[in-house]
Amino acid sequence: MPRGIVVREFGAPGVLVAEDLPDREPGPGEVLVRVHAAGVNPADTYIRAGGYAFFHPPLPYTPGFDGAGVVEAVGAEVSAVAVGDRVFVAALGVPASGTYAQQLICDVAAVHPLPGHLTFHQGAGFGVPWTTAYRALFQRGELEAGETVLVHGASGGVGHPTVQLAIAAGATVIGTAGTEEGLDQVRSLGAAHILNHRTPGYLDTVPELTGGRGIDLVVEMLADQNLEADALLLAQRGRVVVVGSRGSLTFTPRTLMAREADVRGTALWNLTPAEKHAALSGVSDFLAAHQLIATPATVYPLDEAARAHEELATQPAVGKRILNCS
User: Fold this and answer.
1) How far apart are CA 124 and CA 114, in angstroms?
2) For residue 295, what pLDDT is reported?
3) Ordered structural domains, the chain, with CATH
4) SUPFAM superfamilies given for it (predicted)?
């Protein structure tokens, strides 16, 4: 029998329990995937705790929206994929049984080809992080070639694809990280400038780095700590796209008025079907046209999903956290 994580009550990470699951068959329009790796995202932890505004699944449920593996069976009316295909799964907003399991039933719209040169662990990190990065840069941030982007938190799971997609679009990227390992990772991605956000005054060099013009677009992973400083760095009609925040803050709106600048939020739960298709198509185009610089991963056995959730909340982000489901 396949194994999977089952949540029978909302709460702390300990509610993530590994159990034997029944074998299932795909229905019309569905695909059965043998999952080799599952991505762990911050939203997974909010949902598990209960009370998440965007999604409150009925109990019991198996968590996870991102994964990668091999198609084992297809239902009627499915022609986009075939048995034996290597795929990655991006199931946010799409009917699916949860990727924290060795078997996944999902709508065919959630399944996408995984190029042969990429590993299952890499594929498990594409869905939420890469779609978030694409939406932040292009759908909400309206990035144009030649602009300067500050990725505040460039060493994390969303930061890695944000840097790569921005560079591919012709932007100059300034990336921040808080550890030597993280700084090395951002450097390896090709960011033009790398700043240590734990160093006092680390943003003081930004005016010089931009020739006095300022930042056109900030992709912000921790707005409650950085938004006030971000606004002061913006060029005329600059934009901040808030990807993540963990609390409230004091903010001076006059900094936006002087620059006629914008602060824009983003959440993948708001994607229309057309926007989601465009984002995933953009990610697929990047994977086909560019050499992926792999996001570093911390890999856990499937049965240790609770530890993955604990460490996601308590340890600095360098890359992705992945469950090995094989």
Assistant:
1) 10
2) 79
3) 3-125+296-324 (3.90.180.10), 129-269 (3.40.50.720)
4) GroES-like, NAD(P)-binding Rossmann-fold domains
